[in-house]
Write a structure and sequence with these properties.
4-stranded mixed sheet, 174 residues, 6 strands, 34% helix, Rossmann fold, single chain
């Protein structure tokens, strides 16, 4: 919804899904798009053979979509997958083609690898609900932003309450 709202305001938006379920972009494209890792494997990791249409798919409202995916359980690192996603996108100059790039990452995984997109971000917005578990994850992400902000200009832009009419725990956390 955030990607579509920004696109409707005239922004050129890229949403990058960073989830082992590969489901971040499904509702935008209407199908499960291949992950960048899958595409790189098919091309024997020859980045020069990857074209934008191999990894960037047009979604609803003109939002462009990429799926990083994630490593199989117990067999890899989320940070590696994010890094391998960023490399071909940099090669394609994709980061210069968009006004806004959203990394949709898991908030409930303690792996530091899922904080890797913060290395490429200016701002972090945390989408949360009013539950303890979601706010615990939000707190971990906020701590990651604080740590990363020591090495580059990253700021926490705020929290957005999602799928909740209650805000008491969110307000208390803030």
């Amino acid at each position: 919804n955030i990607s579509i709202a920004l696109a409707r305001r005239g922004k050129k938006v890229l949403q990058i899904g960073c989830d082992p379920k590969h489901d971040s972009t499904f509702t935008l494209t209407g199908f499960s798009i291949p992950t960048i890792i899958d595409t790189l494997q098919m091309k024997d990791y020859h980045y020069e053979d990857v074209w934008p249409e191999d990894v960037i798919y047009k979604g609803y409202g003109g939002v462009d979509c990429v799926e990083a995916g994630g490593p199989p359980a117990g067999a890899g690192c989320g940070g590696y997958v994010v890094g391998e996603t960023v490399k071909p996108l940099k090669e394609l100059n994709a980061f210069y083609e968009y006004d806004i790039i959203l990394f949709d990452v898991l908030g409930d995984v303690v792996c530091g690898g899922f904080a890797a997109p913060l290395n490429y971000a200016d701002y972090c917005i945390i989408i949360t609900d009013n539950g303890f578990d979601a706010l615990f994850a939000a707190n971990r992400i906020a701590a990651s932003v604080r740590e990363k902000s020591h090495t580059h200009p990253l700021r926490l832009a705020g929290l957005v309450g999602n799928r909740t009419s209650e805000r008491d725990l969110i307000d208390k956390y803030v």
